[in-house]
């Protein structure tokens, strides 16, 4: 009888431990998403006429923040207005938040016509799964060319000590793609796809 009680106690302890430990382990991938709207202030980023990359990046970042909040994911933005912030100051915000991840939002601009699609960059090997999850999600959702997940030495991701990815959400220098990007529905789909990529990363 005593042995039975002891084994029941053991069972309850194991059950309790699994309730306490498992959810904590599942949620352990990150504590917060640091969203970095590329450029800002005197740094317009890519531009064509009066269309500036910095404005589009901020717009998508706000949409991403709102989408993540709906999904119960906490996030902070490195800038929430049109101000300049040095690259190392952006990643420093993430580096100070224990267990955070860093996602920088950009749009592509090249001096020659034609290229289209999305791509996502990473620097450290530990950032590759985050970049892959985000790129897979946006390429699927947007249906534009998947330019892949790429290694790059961009300072803003190189200076991050937490998993960091830099998303290029399309080419504003290519007329056909620019007209898509100008549509708020595209930017909403992009933001939600980045968010779903982040959620997928957390499930891994
Ligand atoms: Zn940029």
Detailed description of the structure:
There is one protein chain. The protein has seven helices and eight strands, in the order αβββαβαββαβαβαα. It has a single domain (about 30-204), classed as Zn-dependent exopeptidases (Aminopeptidase), CATH 3.40.630.40. The protein is α/β, with parallel strands linked by helices. It has helices spanning about 1-25, 55-70, 85-95, 130-140, 155-160, 175-180, 185-204; strands spanning about 30-35, 45-50, 50, 75, 100-110, 120, 145-150, 165-170. α4 links the parallel β6 (about 120) and β7. Zinc ion binds near residues 38, 39, 45, 53 and 106.
| CATH superfamily annotation | Zn-dependent exopeptidases
Oligomer: single chain
User: Cofactors and ligands present?
Assistant: zinc ion
Lateral strand order in the biggest sheet: 4-1-5-8-6-7
Query: Helical stretch count?
Result: 7
Total discrete domains: 1
CATH top level label: Alpha Beta
Quote the average pLDDT.
90
What's the CATH topology label? Aminopeptidase
Major sheet size, sense and barrel closure: 6 strands, mixed
Termini, distance in Å? 44 Å
Structural class: alpha/beta
CATH architecture designation: 3-Layer(aba) Sandwich
| General form | globular
Low-confidence stretches: 9-28
